[in-house]
Design a protein that fits this description.
By secondary structure, the protein is an alpha/beta fold. It contains 23 helices and 31 strands. It binds zinc ion (2 copies).
Length: 769
């Protein structure tokens, strides 16, 4: 039976070798027809035996090229035209333009095989790549994606490379960064004074230096890494000292998956992620082993691991005695990642012993992406290399909307047609270097994406630096979005939830409409608007930011505010060396001097962490909360669920449901003084939050049965594996449909995406703009 169909494929299907793939597939199944790119993706016309068409369609999804990502395949029956062959035809210009910006990808198996083949002319060549792998976004100056518009333009192809480039049957056909030892970039080793080290093989020399305990800067795809032997305590300690990074976990790179399995438990999903073309850092549960230095992730049960993703990385792992390397972004505290050859020596003087450098220029730095698998779902801690700027599909036109994100973990997001582009991770917008970097990357992506600057979307916080940045652009409107509504909308947006839902937002900090710091919120609404249903009782932060850096202050203030003199005495017993400062804190609270009111999950965790004596002063963002969470039982044992929660109260204050944990705080203080273990306290504390939140939601739904029993969870505290898993389980058990952020970080890195979703919804429903 002759069958004829038209197939429309959308997703990442252009610039990834999709048409040659379809062409070959049609030949395999003996089908006639055509394939072409159009503005929406790829369009295929097929004619042949019904069962062959069926087989073709199955293979189309399961055997698609490595770098492609299919969003939809729509098959429509059509009239046979009795075609006699299968051809690739010219692109169609109609339809809404779907923009493709290629992403950077880990080296593929085929290239690795060639690199390890002594007979190949690219044997041990650290820049081998093809259409299915290699750098893209980081080296493209402008679109269209063509060699003269990349940093490869300074390397004219040799005849061998040229032949592969031009041959339509070759896997390097139109691979723009193609290169070989004759014509391409090369690696050089420099000493700490930036003098060239003369050696036959700079990479092998670097391996020797690493084994001796040296610290190297190594240039990768998106910038420089600081690198040392991850098993060498002394080297790791030196790196920490020089980088002034005493405790924050360091990411490592392991030579092979087997090496990863030696040091951490790796699930099937985690394996796939580690080996994916995006090659992110995956946070894994550490095994008890002496292989890794204890200095890698002190006090943590987890370790962030990635596999080698550039050919150069693979060549660093040729010595079996050196299977683990620290690979941490080479940036100075608070500054953007280093990526230019000339700035490297200036900034890294005194930090590194040698530089393993190369002359393929990086135009757009991207940090490594970081994720974990928790509650069975992907949880992005940082969405950058490999994922940026891959668009997220929108439900309706988002052109002209540009969202600027927040102050921490800043990203921007640009809308065009039905595509939403989240920019790379920039960092905290606290200094002029980072702000300049933010604007540089924004200008660049704005030029590529080419969307009108109609609506700027910013956080409602009056003090965020993005307010100044927006002034440098010519927008018709500036729209403000409340911080936690943006978090909520981000989760609604990626799951295409169009109706109303609850948003449980557990977060560090966000500006609330009442001028206080919000961050423990139950919201109800949709992508356009929300109502605040419940929140954490406010407590003072005397000295503001100082309380965040020094959680013991926050803890003492909480005890004083909630329990008066009794609380102050408890604080003095717990923080016995801080008695005079505690008196000052009390006066600041009483006179409301330099004191803001906050009700956030992050600060609640900080306070409990300090009371338990886990972290008095945070040396990195979120340290106190993260380390407290490490004490909670995990993997979760059934016994944790049966714990009697600490006492808590839910009360109505100003027609708002309020979570009151005063009695819990006091009990935790008393338990600590009695010497109760941090594991027991932390686990019971976590479980108390889970019960309180579940109870509040059930109560709200009983009071107002018309409310939808759909819930989205977001905010930075949902990186906490215990909260993630337990809140999902408890709400599911009570008939709620629960969504977690999976494509976009639940932390402030996902804020700009959420802001854009809100702006799009408001524009559509004309509630604003
Ligand atoms: Zn390749
Ligand atoms: Zn060549």
């Amino acid at each position: 039976m002759l069958r004829a169909v038209e197939v429309a494929v959308t997703g990442r299907v252009q610039g990834v070798g999709f048409r040659p793939f379809v062409y070959n597939l049609a030949h395999i199944w003996g089908l006639n027809g055509t394939v072409q790119n159009n503005m929406d993706g790829v369009k295929i016309r097929l004619e042949g035996e019904g069962k062959d068409v069926q087989s073709f369609l199955a293979d189309l999804k399961s055997k698609a090229p490595r770098l492609s990502k299919i969003d939809t395949v729509v098959v429509k029956e059509s009239k046979p035209q009795h075609l006699s062959n299968f051809t690739i035809i010219e692109s169609e210009r109609g339809g809404k333009s779907m923009l493709v910006i290629p992403i950077d990808s880990a080296v593929c198996e085929d290239c690795l095989r060639e690199m390890n083949d002594p007979n190949d002319f690219r044997y041990q060549y650290p820049f081998i790549n093809c259409t299915q792998c290699g750098p893209r976004y980081t080296l493209i100056e402008e679109l269209p994606y063509d060699r003269p518009y990349t940093t490869m333009k300074r390397f004219p192809m040799c005849p061998d490379c040229q032949r592969e480039y031009e041959d339509p049957t070759n896997r390097r056909h139109h691979a723009q960064p193609i290169a070989c030892p004759k014509c391409g970039p090369h690696v050089e080793l420099f000493n700490r004074k930036a003098e060239l080290v003369h050696t036959e093989n700079p990479i092998q020399e670097a391996v020797k230096l690493l084994k001796k305990g040296n610290i190297l800067a190594v240039k990768g795809i998106g910038g420089y890494h600081l690198c040392c032997d991850a098993s060498n305590d002394q080297a790791v300690a030196t790196l920490r000292k020089r980088k002034k990074r005493p405790l924050k976990p360091l990411a490592i790179m392991a030579g092979t998956l087997t090496d990863v399995q030696q040091i951490a438990a790796v699930s099937e999903t985690e394996q796939l992620l580690l080996k994916s073309p995006e090659a992110p850092i995956v946070i894994l549960r550490k095994k008890e082993t002496r292989t890794l230095s204890n200095g890698i992730a002190p006090g943590m049960k987890t370790v962030g691991v990635m596999l080698p993703y550039t050919p150069l990385h693979h060549l660093l792992f040729t010595d079996p005695e050196l299977p683990y390397l620290v690979m941490t972004s080479a940036n100075l505290s608070g500054l953007p990642m280093l990526y230019r050859n000339q700035e490297m020596v200036m900034y890294l003087d005194g930090i590194v012993d040698y530089y393993l450098d190369h002359n393929r220029e990086i135009l757009h730095p991207v940090d490594d992406s970081v994720l974990q698998v928790a509650a069975g779902k992907i949880d992005f801690l940082r969405r950058s290399r490999g994922y940026v700027p891959d668009p997220i599909p929108a439900d309706y036109d988002v052109s002209g909307l540009i969202a600027f994100g927040g102050q921490q973990k800043a990203t921007f997001t640009i809308g065009r047609n039905k595509q939403i582009f989240i920019g790379p991770h920039i960092g905290d917008l606290e200094n002029i270097e980072t702000i300049a970097h933010y604007k540089h990357e924004l200008d660049h992506l704005l030029k590529w994406i080419d969307t009108p600057t109609q609506v700027a979307v910013i956080d409602a916080h009056p003090g965020y630096n993005v307010r100044q940045i927006v002034k440098d652009y010519d927008f018709d409107t500036v729209m403000e979005v409340q911080h936690h509504h943006a978090h909520m909308a981000a989760c609604l947006g990626e799951h295409h939830v169009s109706g109303k839902a609850f948003g449980i937002i557990l977060d560090g900090t966000g500006y609330g409409f009442d001028g206080n710091v919000w961050g423990f919120e139950v919201l109800y609404g949709d992508t356009a608007s929300f109502k605040r249903m419940a929140h954490l009782h406010y407590t003072p932060l005397p000295g503001g930011e100082k309380c965040i850096r020094e959680p013991w202050r926050n803890a003492a203030a909480m005890l004083i505010d909630l329990h008066g003199e009794e609380g102050k005495n408890l604080a003095k017993r717990i923080f016995s060396e801080k008695a005079s400062e505690i008196e000052i804190l009390q006066r600041m609270i009483e006179t409301n001097m330099n004191t803001i009111q906050a009700g956030t999950c992050g600060r609640l965790f900080d306070a409990v962490s300090a009371i338990c004596g886990i972290t008095m002063i945070s040396s990195y963002d979120g340290e106190a909360a993260i380390r407290l969470a490490e004490f909670a039982n995990e993997p979760l044992e059934q016994s944790a669920y049966d714990l009697e929660p600490y006492p808590y109260e839910l009360s109505m204050e100003n027609s708002l449901l309020t979570f009151d944990f005063s009695r819990m705080i006091k009990e935790i203080a008393l338990e600590t003084l009695r010497g109760k273990s941090s594991v027991a306290i932390s686990t019971r504390f976590h479980e108390t939050l889970v019960r309180a939140i579940t109870t509040a939601l059930v109560w709200l739904c009983e009071e107002q049965p018309q409310l939808e029993k759909t819930v989205v969870l977001s905010g930075g505290s949902f990186h906490n594996r215990f909260l993630r898993k337990r809140i999902v389980d408890e709400l599911n058990a009570r008939g709620f449909k629960v969504f977690l952020p999976e494509k976009v970080p639940c932390n402030d890195g996902g804020l700009s995406y959420g802001q854009l979703v809100v702006a799009a919804a408001r524009r559509r429903t004309s509630k604003c703009v």
